[in-house]
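The passage that follows is intended for readers who have already worked through the single-chain material. We present the inputs for a multi-component assembly, then the predicted structure in tokenized form, and finally a short commentary. You are encouraged to pause after the input and sketch how you expect the pieces to fit together before reading on.
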Amino acid sequence: MDADLDLLQGTLDVLVLKALVWGQRHGYAVAGWIKQTSDQALTVEDRALYVSLHRLEDRGLVESEWGLSDNNRKAKYYRLTAKGRQHLRAQTARWTRYADAVFKVLRAT
Amino acid sequence: MTRTSDPKRLFRLLGSPAGVERDVDTELGFHLEARAEALIAAGAVPEAARAQALREFGDLGAARAELSAIDRHRLSRDRLREWWDSLGLDVRFALRAFARHPSFVVVALATLALGIGGNVAIFSVVNAVLLRPLPYRQPDRLVRVWPNGSVPPGIFAIVSKRTRDVRPIAGYLLQSQVSLTGLREPVRASAVGVTAEIFNVLGSRAQLGRALAAGDDEPGRDRVVVLSHALWRSQFGGDPGVVGRPVVVDGVGRTVVGVMPPDFLFPSPSVQLWVPVAIDPRIGASYWWGNWLQLVGRLAPGVDRVAAQAEVRSVLDGARSAFPMRMPDDWGRDADVIPLRDWIVGGSRTTLLLLLGAVGLVLLVACVNVANLSLARAAAREQEIGIRAALGAGRGRVVRQLLTESVVLAGAGAAVGLLLAVALLTLLVAFLPSDTPRLAEVGIDGRVLSATVGLALLTALIFGLAPALRAARLDVRAAVGSGTRLSGGTFVRRRLADMLVVAQLGLAVILVAGASVLIESFIRLRRVDLGFQTENVTAANVPVPSFESDSLRRAQAFYTAVLDRVQAIPGVSAAAAVGVLPFGDGIGAGPIDVEDSPTPSGAAFPLVEMTSITPDYFRVMGIPLVAGRGITEADRDSAGGVVVVDEVAARKMWPGESPLGKRIRYVWRKDWLTVVGVVGAIRRDSLNDAQRPSVYLPMLESMRVEHRIVARSSVGAQALAPALREAVASVDRNVPIGSIRSLETLVEGSAAHRRFATVLVGIFAAVALLLGAVGTYGVVAHAVTRRRREIGVRLALGARSADVLRMVLGDGLRLALGGALLGVIGAAALTRLAGSLLYGVSPTDPPIFAGVTALMLLVALAATLIPARRASRVDPTVAMRSE
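Having made your guess, compare it with the prediction:
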């Protein structure tokens, strides 16, 4: 995996965690939420999204459960763990600081 | 938790590695379908919608593989964690279970600690003495050359030059006592004469200064000495500037060149200094006859022992003709090359392995005891285990739980045992014969610790397996349903318990039989006729004044003066000097010519013990005069060529004839010695060796200068010691007196290894017997409790209490008989391993075996008596109403 992808992965993880903040969702819903919320600005490759979800589960940041979707089909639902929620808080703060700093530099006259 | 959507829960993801791919497929399938449906809802054609969903997703195959790999990793990690968690649970559960039965735990723990502690202690000694490598460089390449023989310096010079397979090679003399003077006060020290190469052979360097090096044994350059660490500390105060200091060793001025490290103790732990043996052809006597060197060497690279031995034999064969006198033709033909370690460990091996075996049997008995206890406890727990099984605990789970309990118990036993071992070790080391090699190295090290852990696991397996496997076969419904104990299961368990007791009694019989043959050997040895009387004889190590050490006549004058003073001590009835004291000074054998039967040239000369004595020696020692006369005062000064022989020598040299008037001589002297008397034979340095032919000479005919003083007195060695010291000091203040001990102590010391082994095996046997009795009592008592109702019925139906007593005693007796039979068979096979420790008794001595069997039956009967009496007093009305 090259450096760009690494950065993307880290970013994607935060977005996925954020998508789960209001409760459990299956992968398809997570993808839809990211697309919708970013006004289509961020398009996430589906494969990368699932890798992210499974990785987060491996790290204990999310946990999964089988459930039935709205149209009664078997789907895998993901949910934040306490550890995941904490991680999200820390990452959000970091991202905000980072974005502020970059913004300041770019706006400098 | 707030939720955006609340799906109906299907089931918790349990997950198994095999199902990982299927789950990934289901998940991704849902995604693709959901996307396609969304596209269709937006107006797409179904086929096109599916194709687009697939396209948007990316490489599906790669995704599958990657996701599966992540999940598999997570699952295996979770499983491991779960395993650990449940282990912790098992351990906690085990501790709670133990807390409910403290008496069981105390008994089991004590038994195990005793068994494991004893084993760890003995193993620590075995480890230090037999297993740990010698503290020299590449110790496995070191060899002892010709352990049964030795060579004079003249031959050594040839051997070290010609031998290629053992190189370097060095020689050393027997350790001897020397006087150190030139210090604050004169002291006696244990010295070894060595050739200069010895430190090079062993690969050891000095801690301070230097060790001996090539050239130090050349004449004129040999006035040097190397100190042991202990001597440096005790006599030189650990002075770092000791190198270069002068010191006088037996009258010879030498310079200290180095101090060895504390662990360098070659050839024995008691060595205190090393002096070079001069390899000097000009001193003919010591070059060819005096200093007999023992050989030690290092195998040359790539050479094995067998090849080296062949070479050494051929070199010795070639060197034989270099002797100035004709040597026997087979001289040197028996030269072996053996690993140095085997030689150093020597006789301790049998003793230690015997003890290890015996203490191992004790542990087995202990294991069986705990197994039986666990089995009895398992009976009480059948309902509990049944409930656990009914609640979904699989067989494997139940077995694991029970094995965990065993391991926890054994682990605790091992921990207590280790503490016990540390305490026992101190005792053992103090109690071990002081000439045991490498005693200072005994301690708990990594190998001992890992052996302890191994032992704990092994014991857990041995005593835990039977109850665990029985629990696995438990009928769940019956156990939970009835709430009572099961007759069928009880029968199986009872048979198992019986078998365990039989095994236990059998093991105890083996140990008791082994201890008995050892004790019998010991008693017989004590009854061996020494040929002299040890009571009230004190032996003192009195060296000659060092400046006179070159002259026998001066030495005799010195000893005569000392003896005069000693005889004047109140309570002393007789005193004498002797060159080689039995049980004190080893061997003083020399080759002789017998006038009437000359040794054909090329054959070996007869070897006899040559003991130089002063006139009163036979009286002091209580050695009876059989014919002729002893050595008298008249022989003292004239050195008139007389000799007294003992009965063994007389029989050997002049069978059927009177030896009086016959003549013998040292092979290297011209003058004949005429036999003037015959005395009784004595044992020389070991109670169980054959008596060797001995001859007694006046001191002036001796080959050695230094003698011992022996005195017969009405007081013991302790009480006599101050007066003895005073007597010696009044003749010469500068003579350091060596040890003063009773002759009894010296004789006892020769049997120290045997006594050590006997006492320990005896203790082990007693412990095993006790455990066996406890085991028998436990099983019979348990059976009686269980059969109370049956016994009640019998009594109600008219059986008398005597019948019941007989019935229960019969049960116990059956077990004991089985155990005795098993034990006798085992003992017959095992006691012969004691081999060299036995004396005058067959390893399968029938009276001993019969006695042991009787003892076993008696002990078993005694253990059965209490429960049997309890059974006979059962009140039928109470018993039948119970349960």
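Commentary: Chain B touches chain A through 35 residues (CB under 8 Å). DSSP finds 27 helices and 22 strands in chain B. How closely did your sketch match?
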